[in-house]
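Dear Dr. H.,

I hope your travels went smoothly. While you were away I took the liberty of generating a structure for the chain from your last submission, since the lab meeting agenda had it listed for discussion. I wanted you to have the full record in hand beforehand rather than looking at slides cold. The sequence, exactly as received, is reproduced here:
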Amino acid sequence: MTGDGTRSPADDLRARLDEPQVAASLNSLLDHADLLAIVVVALDGFLARGDVIADSLASAIGEITASTASADLSKVDVRSLARTANSLAESGPALTELLGPLSEPHTVAALGTLAGALGDAQRSARTAPPAGALSLLRALRDPDVSRGVGFLLEVARALGRRTT
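The corresponding predicted structure, in token form, is as follows:
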């Protein structure tokens, strides 16, 4: 409260922070701050290119309109199209189950690390000679190789737990 007994904007903010739903929502936002940052950057890029995207979309709609005006739609297999739409609708729960873990921040980070490592490995594998059994054993002394093998063992362990 201010000196004259009126509520200040800071008092209003403190009162809102004391509300359980507001606190829970803010905690959820903070838990996903890294993912939100990625979304904000992507949205910023999308908005920055809004004119180009709108022009491209208008052009595509124009092309579709022009091509469908002369198209013979009597040859469209509507039953097959309906079956495809039903299959997509039925696959919703499976897609949710697949995409749910993919949206976890630690999974996104792991996939980014894996993608970078795959690119590095592909470049190195082009120039590296094929490895024999002894060179594989010597490679285990390399701390990077040791960490990588340890990671792969943890993936195998986690996969085993999930498949039993």
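Two observations you may find useful: The chain has a mean pLDDT of 78. Residues 105-127 form the longest helix (23 residues).

With kind regards,
E. W.
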